[in-house]
């Protein structure tokens, strides 16, 4: 329940602080006095969007703070899930800065509007003429029936299975599409894979083949160069070997004279050994070199095959082709395995369909039992609210689809008068009738579920007299187990409240301000008398007001 509300610099309110009590609270005031401002401020605390027009003084920030007693609301899990500090007396603060930016806090922890809106669902439910029209919505009608049927836990279980079922269906459809697409390409992919496999490619092969091709294609030039090099190295009188030996012999004569000469001798000896090794390599290469046109043709063909494949697959090298070959192999392997995946997930879908059907049947049977109870209680309450001939016909229509709350649709039919046919609630019920039906619904729901604080915003529009008294009695009865607010113009309802607040508007200098005041017993008598007779209060109006209050 809301225990206090403070407002600073909002609309026509400069500063306001008010405490609320449990039970049934009445809010009255002239049209335009500021009742909608109070609701607007509460709406901001509940997470509604704000703008600069909310600021009374555009140079200062607007601050709205509400304190709630949530000790009986079982909200600790919500606070833990949202990483918020839990307090039995929880404070929500909303600030609107002159820049237009808005900030929200729960127990001094900053939160976003979505978190605030999620929490507000457990705190306050505001019902105006506009919200009353929601009663025509099928989802709202189902929630009413399911509350009486005790279906909420069962529906939660159903929704978990439904979510998993829809996920499996999406995977199944994706696999079927993948299978269809892959099937169209399977023959071509198989051809491409076989072509690459037949090429018998090896990493680094292209570079080796290109080197071999250069050798085989230039064998005469290479052999001529190798033989000439060997001749220069081995010429008997002027060859490199002969000259190296001459140098080595000359240095050997002086090695004993200095370490420096010894080092030079060792170096020329090393060169001689290295050159001997090079000469032998030249000899081996020359002997291995053959003019082989057939091998040249084979190398040329293999290179051309590689070049064609590189172009065809837009690859940079043989390693790229080998990766494409592996990918094609995996694709074809996946296609072989996809049939097993489709069968496995289809089996899971069948299991979930059976489970959904089982739970949906439980939901349906509970609803079948709840509908007569709801209809009977609605009729009982509405008869006392001036609708003696009201009738309801709630039909559950089976659906082939798995809907969010079961496997059926609802036709909520209504007749207000004898001799009139049933019609859809939203089409045949008047505004006044809808208000009374909504009040009856809330009164019934209060017995079956833990409702948040309820604010009825002129739900009594279009009724008066004895019906208004009975509406007040119903709200009073509801307030025994929950906090109820009623914004009303009817004295019969205002008199039923445990506490009574008046919203008034006044002019202070050049400024207009609204205020909310808790009335004393004497002030209540005056307020209700004024509601009965207008500005000029008569003695009979005062006496009538006292009678209503008693």
Report on the architecture of this protein.
InterPro entries: DNA_recomb/repair_RecN, P-loop_NTPase, RecF/RecN/SMC_N. Belongs to the RecN family. It holds the Pfam family SMC_N. Residues 2-506 form the RecF/RecN/SMC N-terminal domain. This protein has 550 residues and is α/β, with parallel strands linked by helices. Among the domains are: 1-123 and 452-519, Rossmann fold (3-Layer(aba) Sandwich), CATH 3.40.50; 176-337, no CATH class. It is 57% helix and 18% strand. A six-stranded antiparallel beta sheet has the order 2-1-4-5-6-7. It has a six-stranded mixed beta sheet with strand order 8-12-13-3-14-15. Strands 9-10-11 form a three-stranded antiparallel beta sheet. The longest helix is centred in the middle third of the chain and has 67 residues, at 318-384. It starts with a strand and ends with a helix.
Q: What overall geometry do the principal axes of the alpha carbons give? A: elongated
The CATH class of the domain at 1-123 and 452-519, by name, is: Alpha Beta
- In which range does the helix fraction lie? 55-70%
CATH fold-level label of the domain at 1-123 and 452-519 = Rossmann fold
What topology, given as strand order, has the largest sheet? 2-1-4-5-6-7
**Poorly predicted tracts of residues:** none
* Rg of Cα set: 46 Å
Family: Belongs to the RecN family.
Coiled coil: 321-355
Organism: Flavobacterium artemisiae
Protein name: DNA repair protein RecN
